[in-house]
């Protein structure tokens, strides 16, 4: 890549002054406006929230080993799945790739010194933490048993948990999403390096752009919905409760108008990361780059029009059901296109099997299964049977965990040398990637069958004929837990003892790899000028 | 007793029988989706593994530039997936519309969901908790509502599921084709004992069903109960034949178009009748003053359903007279 960039002198080996080493004080972290440090603050915070939510999941899987409710009582189980859902969705998945990797990598990738509004960026993290701590407080003083979906009138009238406190936490964290989205949109519009036109942007940047649009447009609807619940609960204004003249289905419309696009907040950035990794380790430009970029925007746009597919059996109009089914099939087309493009990129490539690439392959497999089972649920008659069963649980875990978390782990491993300046133990990392893949399938594939057989979600007491598959699923969760724990050790080890990475250990294209590892505080000494397309790898036919 | 219908799902029939008129259609589209998905996964896996081996770094395989324009591949994929997807859309939607249309001659049964039980009321007055006895090969229409939160009435063996929403009556139907006992679940999370809100549908041969009916003879029908309630809640004071002209007469009302105060015409369907009892000022009949009090919180859901049954019996030419055999 011909870039008039930072001089090729690799400073990381001898000159230690970089964004990390320039000041070690706590103050310098808590008041930082450096997008890289804010990215790391998010990394630590979401790892913390992920761990709590994962422990809740582990307890649920333990309970599900037997058909009786013998480990925890119903009220505890209901609180466990609520906290698992709320923390995983709003405090891990939504911020995962955008807030951690987006913050750290995006400005480097587009040749900027920081995001457009560094102070707002820091404020976003504080909003995020305020929301997160409120949610934790709500859990500690008694928890909430509504499920992460907060369906009315259960949540607004009947539930006696701390619904309002938890909803306030989500409400506040929502503003963090909006501010982050706004920041990225402005950054991508205004701070791209000279010569870096839209169609020269790496697909990761496209995916962050599309995600940010959704964050800014959809999150306010969630905020309004939560406010309406508070109005009803505190002031008795009839919005959702039929006894007050409200409509319980209105809540579902509003909630899914946000939460379906939120699914794309949780998967588009994963698609971006995987595009980077596949291009790098195949040493090829992503097949059909332009269509791949347009597909990302198409998914983001169509994603706003399919919320009603969560309501096929809710008693909404059957004709609404038919329209939403059609639109849901249409939104699957660009997703399928993306899978075909990734596979086609491997054709006549030059492939290396480093850890990030293994994660990308895992993403490809699991996202494909998740996407295909989405077609089952978009098919009206089949959804009537599968709705609210474990089939749905398995489907969205294939997308969210199999897709997004695999991509997130892949991204962390791909950019770890840039973030930390160090290399990790390659074989341990490969073993962990394979362990996660096996553990994941063992955990969630049986749930497709359970759901088809009729096991409803949010059931901890179930008919005995479902036990065998539940035991398989729980044993898979043990494998998965081991896979997720390994990186904590070898990545932690690499921070102190890993070999120096150098500025570009993967020999990748992209402006972020032209900076030293770790980058200096202001990323680039001189603003780079871009003259080439994205993924400008050498011609393999020569 | 007819044997279980032979199906490719015979292996799992022990856990998930296929026991309703609609299930074979759902099974067929499910199987088609499964085979299509499996074929696609297999094709992608073969392609990926082949590429990974042949084009691993350092392999001698030639890597000439692609001769065919990329857009041709893209166009093929886009058109191909769209056509297949639309096929599944139409297939699934056709069955869904069939599910939505209650067949003529269906036997109506009222279902009330409440935390945490299914309260089932037959037209002849029989009442069951968590059990639903039905005759085989007879379409059953479930008229359902909830007294508190949203529940979902699900019978996997019938491929049947319908959310039961407070504040409205919803309809669902099934026709059981194989006698037996099939689990009912509540599929919509409804609070502490959600996982225990179950029950069974007991599908009986006509003879067994008749025998079961006989054991409960003597109960009042929903219409009869509704007529009694019509008097007890004071409705008859204004709406019955010889009362003053303050309130509209209700004979023949159900199903008719009613002109209301603001000039609109509304159809007197279930939702209208129910609103007229619980939220009377929502649609005031043209020519009448809005004087009726709301019965919200006064009349339990079960009684509302009985009243609806009575009001619908009034639609016929010769409604049962109020003073005849009222208990």
Layout of helices and strands, plus pairs?
The complex is a heterodimer of chains A (542) and B (327).
Chain A (H helix, E strand, L loop, with lengths): L25 H5 L4 H29 L10 H36 L8 H23 L13 H5 L4 H28 L12 H33 L12 H35 L6 H14 L15 H29 L8 H24 L1 H7 L3 H31 L5 H28 L13 H31 L45
Chain B lengths: L22 H32 L15 H31 L6 E8 L2 E6 L4 E3 L1 E5 L4 E7 L4 E5 L4 E5 L5 E5 L5 E7 L12 E6 L1 H10 L6 H11 L2 H5 L17 E3 L5 E3 L2 H9 L22 H13 L14
Parallel strand pairs in B: 1-5, 4-10
Antiparallel strand pairs in B: 1-2, 2-3, 5-8, 6-7, 6-9, 9-10, 11-12
Helix pairs in contact in B: 1-2, 4-7, 6-7
Structural features:
heterodimer; A: 542 residues; mainly alpha; Cytochrome C Oxidase, Chain A; 15 helices; globular; disordered N terminus; B: 327 residues; alpha+beta; Immunoglobulin-like; Cytochrome Bc1 Complex, Chain D, domain 2; 3 domains; 34% helix; elongated
Descriptive notes:
The complex is a heterodimer of chains A (542) and B (327). Chain A is mainly alpha-helical. Helix content of chain A is 66%, strand content 0%. Chain A has one domain (53-514): Cytochrome c oxidase-like, subunit I domain (Cytochrome C Oxidase, Chain A), CATH 1.20.210. Chain A starts with 25 loop residues before the first helix and ends in a 45-residue tail after the last helix. Chain B is built from 7 helices and 12 strands. In chain B, α1 (23-54) packs antiparallel against α2 (70-100), α4 (222-232) packs across α7 and α6 (270-278) crosses α7. Chain B has helices spanning 23-54, 70-100, 206-215, 222-232, 235-239, 270-278, 301-313, and strands at residues 107-114, 117-122, 127-129, 131-135, 140-146, 151-155, 160-164, 170-174, 180-186, 199-204, 257-259, 265-267. Chain B is elongated and about 100 Å long. In chain B, the strands form 3 sheets. Chain B has a 5-stranded mixed sheet, with helices on one face. A 5-stranded mixed sheet of chain B has the order 4-10-9-6-7. Residues 1-10 and 319-327 of chain B have low confidence and may be disordered. Chain B folds into 3 domains: 10-100; 107-215, Immunoglobulin-like (Sandwich), CATH 2.60.40.420; 222-313, Cytochrome c-like domain (Cytochrome Bc1 Complex, Chain D, domain 2, Orthogonal Bundle). The chains are: A mainly alpha (542), B alpha+beta (327). At the A-B interface, α3, α5, α8, α10 and α11 of A face α1, α2, β7 and β9 of B.
């Amino acid at each position: 890549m011909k870039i008039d960039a930072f001089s090729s002198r690799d400073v990381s080996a001898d000159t230690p002054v970089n964004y990390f080493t320039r000041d070690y004080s706590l103050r310098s972290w808590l008041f930082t406006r450096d997008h890289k440090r804010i990215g790391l603050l998010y990394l630590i915070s979401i790892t913390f929230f992920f761990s709590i939510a994962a422990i809740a999941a582990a307890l649920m899987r333990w309970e599900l080993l037997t058909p009786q409710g013998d480990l925890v009582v119903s009220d505890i189980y209901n609180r466990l799945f609520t906290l698992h859902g709320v923390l995983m969705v709003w405090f891990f998945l939504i911020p995962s790739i955008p807030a951690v990797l987006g913050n750290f990598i995006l400005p480097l990738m587009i040749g900027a010194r920081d995001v457009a509004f560094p102070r707002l960026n820091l404020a976003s993290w504080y909003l995020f933490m305020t929301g997160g701590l409120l949610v934790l407080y709500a859990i500690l003083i008694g928890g909430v048993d509504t499920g992460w979906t907060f369906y009315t009138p259960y949540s607004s009238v009947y539930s006696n948990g701390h619904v309002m406190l938890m909803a306030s936490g989500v409400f506040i964290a929502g503003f963090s999403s909006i501010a982050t989205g706004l920041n990225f949109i402005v950054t991508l519009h205004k701070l791209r390096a000279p010569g870096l036109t839209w169609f020269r942007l790496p697909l990761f940047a496209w995916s962050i752009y599309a995600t940010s649009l959704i964050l800014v447009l959809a999150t306010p609807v969630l905020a309004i919905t939560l406010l309406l619940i508070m109005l009803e609960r505190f002031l008795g204004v009839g919005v959702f409760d039929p006894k007050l003249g409200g409509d319980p289905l209105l809540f579902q419309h509003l909630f899914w108008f946000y939460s379906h696009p939120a699914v794309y907040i949780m998967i588009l950035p994963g698609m971006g990361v995987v595009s980077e990794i596949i291009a790098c380790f195949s040493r090829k430009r992503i097949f059909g780059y332009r269509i791949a970029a347009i597909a990302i925007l198409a998914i983001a746009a169509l994603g706003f029009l399919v919320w009603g597919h969560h309501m096929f059996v809710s008693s909404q109009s059957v004709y609404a059901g038919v329209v939403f089914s059609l639109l849901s099939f249409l939104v699957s087309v660009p997703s399928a296109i993306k899978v075909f493009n990734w596979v086609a990129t491997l054709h006549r490539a030059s492939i290396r099997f480093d850890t990030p690439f293994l994660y990308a392959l895992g993403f490809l497999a699991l996202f494909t299964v998740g996407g295909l089972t989405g077609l089952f649920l978009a098919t009206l008659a089949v959804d009537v049977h599968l709705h609210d069963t474990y089939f749905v649980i398995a489907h969205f875990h294939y997308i969210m965990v199999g897709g997004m978390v695999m991509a997130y782990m892949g991204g962390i491993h791909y950019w770890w040398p840039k973030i930390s300046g160090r290399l990790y133990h390659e074989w341990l990392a490969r073993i962990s990637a394979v362990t996660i893949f096996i553990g994941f399938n063992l955990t969630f594939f049986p749930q497709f069958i359970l759901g088809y057989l009729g096991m409803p979600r949010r059931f901890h007491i179930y008919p005995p004929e479902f036990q065998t598959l539940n035991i398989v699923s729980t044993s898979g969760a043990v494998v998965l837990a081991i896979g997720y724990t390994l990186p904590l050790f070898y990545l932690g080890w690499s921070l102190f003892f890993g070999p120096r990475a150098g500025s570009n250990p993967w020999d990748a294209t992209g402006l972020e790899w032209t900076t030293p590892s770790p980058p200096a505080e202001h990323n680039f000494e001189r603003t780079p000028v871009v003259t080439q397309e994205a993924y400008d790898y050498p011609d393999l036919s020569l | 007793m007819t044997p279980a219908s032979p199906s490719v799902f015979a292996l799992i029939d022990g856990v998930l029988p296929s026991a309703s008129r609609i299930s074979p259609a759902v099974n067929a589209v499910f199987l088609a989706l499964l085979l299509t998905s499996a074929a696609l996964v297999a094709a992608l896996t073969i392609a990926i593994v082949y590429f990974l081996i042949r084009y691993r770094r350092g392999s001698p395989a030639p890597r000439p530039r692609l001769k065919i324009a990329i857009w041709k591949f893209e166009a093929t994929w886009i058109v191909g997936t769209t056509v297949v997807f639309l096929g599944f859309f139409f297939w699934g939607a056709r069955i869904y519309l069939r599910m939505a249309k209650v067949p003529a001659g269906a036997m109506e049964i009222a279902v009330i969901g409440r935390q945490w039980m299914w309260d089932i009321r037959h037209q002849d007055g029989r009442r069951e908790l968590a059990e639903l006895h039905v005759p085989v090969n007879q379409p059953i229409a479930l008229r359902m509502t909830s007294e508190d939160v949203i529940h979902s009435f699900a019978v996997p063996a019938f491929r049947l599921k319908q959310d039961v929403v407070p504040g409205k009556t919803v309809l669902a139907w099934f026709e059981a084709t194989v006698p037996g006992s099939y689990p009912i679940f509540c599929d919509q999370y409804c609070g502490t004992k959600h996982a225990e809100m179950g029950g069974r549908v007991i599908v009986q041969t006509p003879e067994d069903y008749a025998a079961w009916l006989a054991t409960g003879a003597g109960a009042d029908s929903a219409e009869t109960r509704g007529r009694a309630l019509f008097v007890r809640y004071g409705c008859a004071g204004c709406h019955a034949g010889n009362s003053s002209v303050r309130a509209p007469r209700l004979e023949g009302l159900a199903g008719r178009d009613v002109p209301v105060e603001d000039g609109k015409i509304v159809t007197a369907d279930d939702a209208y009748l129910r609103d007229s009892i619980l939220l009377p000022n929502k649609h005031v009949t043209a020519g009448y003053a809005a004087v009726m009090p709301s019965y919200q919180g006064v009349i339990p859901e079960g009684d509302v359903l009985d009243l609806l049954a009575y009001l619908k019996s009034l639609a016929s030419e010769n409604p049962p007279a109020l003073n005849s055999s009222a208990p």
